Write the C-alpha cells for this entry.
Amino acid sequence: MSWIKGLKANFLLRVVSANSLVIAIRLTITLAIQRILAKSLEEYGIAKIGDLRNIMAMLTSFTSMGIFNGMVKFVSQNENEPSQLKELLSTSFIFALFGSLISSLVLAVFAETFSVWFFDGPDFADVFYILAVIAPAIGLQRIFNAVVHGMSRVKKYAIIELVAYIISAILTLAGLYFNHLKGVLLAISIGPLIQLLTLVFIFGKTLKPLITSIKPKWHGHFGNALLAFTLMSFVSNILLNSVEIYLREVLERSLNINEAGYWTAITNISKNYMVFSTALFSLYVIPKFAKITTGLDFKTEVLHIYKTLLPLFGVGMLLIFVFRDFVVQLIYPNFEGMEPLFKWQLLGDFVRLAAVVVAHQFLAKKMIRSFIASEIVSMILFFGLSLILIPIFGTEGVVMSHFVRYVIYFGFVLLLIQRHFARTA
C-alpha cells in the first residue's frame, strides 16, 4: 500500500488534517455564535462587528510592526541555531515595543473620536480604551505565534487556536447577554489577550528558554530584513482593511445598513473557511518556499500544493453554493438579501486561493517591490470596480469586483514570478 505511505509522509496533508479538525470545530461554534448574533443584533450589529474586526486586523499588524511573516521565515531557517534565534527574538521585541507603545498612545488619546467615526457616537469609547491597554499583549501574541508557525508545530498550533477560540466564543456570548452590542465588541477586543495566555500556557516550555535569556536589542542584519516585511504588511493589511471599512460605509450611505450587513455576513463566511488556508500558508508554504532556490523546484511545489489543496476547497465551496439557502437560514436567519452574493464571493475566493499560494513567494523571498506592486494593483481594482459596480448592481457589485480583481491579480502575480526566475536563472 505505497500510496497510503505516501499520504502519511505528505507533510502538507498532515498540516491539512491537523487543521481540519480545528476548523470543523471552529465552524460549528461559529455557526451557533453567528446565528445568535444575527438574531440579536441584526444587520446593523453585524456590520459594526465587521468594522471592529477590520480595526483589530490593522492593530494586530501595527503592534508587531508587521513582522509576522518575516519571523516565520527566519525562525524556520534558524530553528537549529539558538544564537540566531535569540538575536531574532531580541530584535523582534524592539519592533513589538515600538509598535505597541504607539498603538496604545493613539488609541487612548483618540478613543472617543474613533468611537464616533466607527460606531456613530461616543458610547463605544471603552472598546478603544481596552485596546489601548492590551496593545502590548497583541504585539507579543503576534511574535510568539510567529515562533510556533516558524517551527511548524502543527498540533500545538491547532490546540492553541481551538482553546483560544472556545474561550473567546464564551466571552462573546457573555458580552451579548450582559451588554448587547457593546458587550460583544468588548469581548472581541480582548480576544488577542486570550490567545496570548493560551499560547504561553501550551507552548511555554519551548518559549521559556528563548525568552528568559533575551533582552530587547537591535541586531541590524535581522532588523533591516524585518523592516522589509513591515512595509509589505502595512501596504497589504492597512490598505485592505481601510478599503473594507470604506466600502461598508458606501453601502450604508448608497443603499442601507442592511446591505452593509449582508456583505459583512458573506465576508464572515468567507473568512471562516479561508482561515484554514491562512494557517496553512504560515505553517507550510512560507517555510517551504523560503528554502526553494530554482524555478523548477518552485513550480513542482506549487503544483503539489494545488493538487492537495484546490480539490478540497473546490468541493467545499461547491457544497456551500448548492446549499446556500440552507446556510443563510442556519447562520444568518432573515438575511435573505445575501443569497445572490454567494456565487461571486466563492468564485473570487477560489481564484484568490490559487493566486495567494504563488504570491507567498514574495514573502518567502522578500520580494518587496513585487509584493507591494501586486497588493496596490489588487486594492485599486477592488476599490475602483466596487465604486463603479455598486450603483449598477447594488451590493452584488462588491462581490463581482472581488472576483474580477483576483482574476487579474493572479495573472499579474504569475507574470512577476516568471520575471523573477528568469532574472535569477
Observations:
- Residues 88 and 222 are 6 Å apart (CA to CA).
- DSSP finds 15 helices and no strands in the chain.
- The mean pLDDT is 84.
- Residues 2-424 form one domain.
